[in-house]
Structure formats: C-alpha cells, structure tokens
Design brief:
The N terminus is likely disordered. The protein is globular. The protein contains 8 helices and 10 strands. Helices cover 36% and strands 19% of the residues. By secondary structure, the chain is of the alpha/beta class. The termini are far apart. Helix 3 packs across helix 4 and helix 6 packs across helix 7.
Length: 297
Amino acid sequence: MNNQKVFLICIFCILFSNVKIFADLEDTKRNQIPVSYYSSCEKQGTTILYKYVSNHRARTAVVYLPYGYDENDFETTYPVLFLMHGGGGTSTSYLGTPGSPNQLCWIIDNAIENEQIQPLIIVCPNDNGAFYNELRKSLIPAIDKDFNTKADRNNRAFGGFSMGSVATWNVFLHDLDLVANFIPMSGDSWVCGNTGGKNYPEQTAIALSNADFLTDYKDSYYIFSATGTGDTAYPNLVPQINAMKKLTDSFKYTNDDFTNGNLMFYVVKGNIHSYNHTYEYIYNALHHFYGRKNAQS
C-alpha cells in the first residue's frame, strides 16, 4: 500500500471517529454562558473565608452566599454545592477571595438574578487526601450547623476539576447517602488505579456500580460529567463513561435531562484542561440540579 493510500485511510478514520465523538455533543443541550454574565450584576452575592475543624485540625474553605442571604432568616434555606479544586489548586481556585472574586461568582450572581438557577451556597474546601471522610465527618455537619441549608442529600451536590474530579468519584463511591448530585469535570475515577478510567474502564465502571449505599438510593443519584475534546483528561474519561453506559442497571445515559436518566456526559469541542472551561460545565450542571423548575422543598 503506497503512502498516499495510507494517508487517505488515516484521514478517513479521523473524520469518521470525529463524527462518532461529536455525535453526542450535537445532541446534548448546551447552555452557553451569556457574555454579560462575565461582568458583575446589581444583586451580588458575597464570599467569605470559613473556618472549621476536622480531625482536630483547623481547616479553611471559601464560601459563596447568594444575594439576600440572611443568617437570621432560618425559614429561607438553600441547596449547597461543594467544589473541589484540582492538583496544585486551593480553596480560592474557583471563587477567588472575598476581596477579589473570580468570574464564576459573577456568573452565578447573574444566573440567580435572571432566575435560571435557585439561589445556592457554594463551598470550596482544600483537599486533604481521602476527602470523602472529611466531607462526611466534618464539613457537611459544620456547613449545616453554621448556614441556612437544605440539609438533605437531594439538595447537595459535589463537583471537582481534574484531581478534584477524582475526589468527586470517591465521594460518589462512599457518600451517596449524603450527596445525590455529582459534577466530575476533566478527571476519571482512580478506584482501580491511577488513570483507571482509561486503563481499566470496565473494572472502574463495575466498582462505581457497587458504590456504598447505591442500592439504597436506586434511581436517585445523578452524574453530570464534563470535559473538552482538547482536554488531557478526555482520553481517560471517555472509556470510563462508555463502560458505565453499558451498566444500565446502575447508570442510565441521557443527553437531554435527568428525567430520563442519571448519567450525562457533556463534551465541548476544543475545550482544554482549564478552570475557565469549568465555568460552563458548572453553569450547565446547575441548570439540571438546581434550576428553578427543579426546586426541592
């Protein structure tokens, strides 16, 4: 076979694979963030540094409180999103600091002001190894004690980027009785070993299907996983998601909304491994989890 024929075959394979890769993307409802949302709006939330104790150690998180939050108004309660940073990041990676908020704060402010999502509390902790233990034993109890939260699993979400996504899969494995909604972004599960989503996709999917408490909460957990085709995590996450799709007793894939399934894979053509792209992923996930029509009492 001459070089020209080899070249043409390679081009055909690439084009064909792209059709398959982007087929789900074209079918997935995508809510792009309006350009105006990257600027501050009239009704701004606030960010604070929050200190709590875990295993006798002082810990710090950045907490976003929506516009109008009143610590003395115990009748008005809010869902909570926990967001874990990636490797090398800190609790300030998503929201910035109280004196210098990141654009994600403005995006959330605008989405709430325009009644796209419910007002919510966002908690950004620092990773501490097996964080699912700290979440269970320390952080959730502290947040529910000190803030006016909707203190039930349906009104809790946990998400993370890169290594924070690895942490998110671990929370799914161990804390399903506490958290119902998950946003693993640009990172696979390492329950079967590092980069297990790529190297051991079937075993990883099976391990996830055997998560603690999964049978107790059948059909009441939801995964909005997201990445970009240019992301270094893309080839690690795709095999895992594809393997999960085959385990239909545990994971029902949907590219529309969670009334028809519990697993969504949101892929954006060209997006790379960057916090900036997580803003769109979080924005879309919140439409599904805490959109106005999905309000939980």
